[in-house]
Amino acid sequence: MEALSLEAIQEYFDLFITFCKIGFFSFGGGLAMVPLFVVEFQKQGWMEPDQFYNVLSLAQMTPGAIAVNSATYVGNQAGISVGGRLGAIIGGVFSTSGLATPSVVCIVALSEILKKLKQNKWKQAFFFGIKPVTIALILFAGWKIAESTFFDIEIDKVHYPSIVLCIIVAVIIKFFDKKIHPIALIAVSSILGIVLF
After folding, report:
1. Binning pLDDT at 50, 70 and 90, where does residue 1 land?
2. Is residue 89 within 8 Å of 81, Cβ to Cβ?
3. Chain centroid to CA 7: how far?
4. Beta-ladder partners of 43
5. Which has the closest alpha carbon to 4: 77, 74, 79?
6. What is the pLDDT of residues 123-149, one digit of tens each?
7. Which residues contact 190 (CB under 8 A, 6 or more apart)?
């Protein structure tokens, strides 16, 4: 087995630190992390926003948490560039570990403290304060995904088939949500996407 190059080691270190930063400063789950993902991926040169929104769509359809799936995929792609197939695996491990580490550390460190502060007004004020920020981050993620879905490369060119498909699926969910399984909707939408787009 070949020794890891300095470039590869630096890339894996960057993956771990970047995803650690995202994991540490994100509240509200996968979609709330999207703005941080976009900024960091562009800064590191791993992925452009439009590419990431495609990855995000795929991550939402696959089993597991959106953020973890996205992190693994991006780490995999970044790892390929410096280490081939083995690099892809290592990159995926480093990025996923980086994303999960802050949560694990915080939960372990804070679980006992939060139990003792159950009714503490400062703790309640903190969580009350981060709720609007979380909602804003999720709305921003929704807006950026909608923008990349409903408009072509230029913002003034509307992609009408995507809008029609979105409306149809929304109507189906509204009126037949108990009868149609979400996986069936995702599968049918994917097939329609391949056929129509």
Report:
1. very low
2. no
3. 26
4. none
5. 79
6. 778 777 878 887 887 888 778 778 777
7. 61
Encode pLDDT of 38-53 as tens digits.
888 888 888 887 788 8
State how far the Cα of 166 lies from the Cα of 196, in Å rounded to an integer. Answer: 13
| Count of all residues that appear for the chain in the document | 197
What is the Cα–Cα distance from 61 to 66, expressed in whole angstroms?
Answer: 9
State how far the Cα of 137 lies from the Cα of 90, in Å rounded to an integer: 30
Q: Is 84 left (phi over 0), alpha (psi -120 to 50) or beta?
A: left
Condensed to tens digits (0 to 9), the pLDDT of residues 14-33 reads: 999 999 988 887 766 677 78
What 3-state DSSP class applies to 151? strand
pTM over 0.85: no
**89: exposed, middle or buried (Cβ count in 10 Å: 0-12, 13-18, 19+):** middle
Question: How many percent of the chain have pLDDT more than 70?
Answer: 91
Neighbour-count burial of 33, counting CB atoms closer than 10 A to its CB (0-12 exposed, 13-18 middle, 19+ buried): buried
DSSP secondary structure code for residue 158 in this structure: B
SS3 112: helix
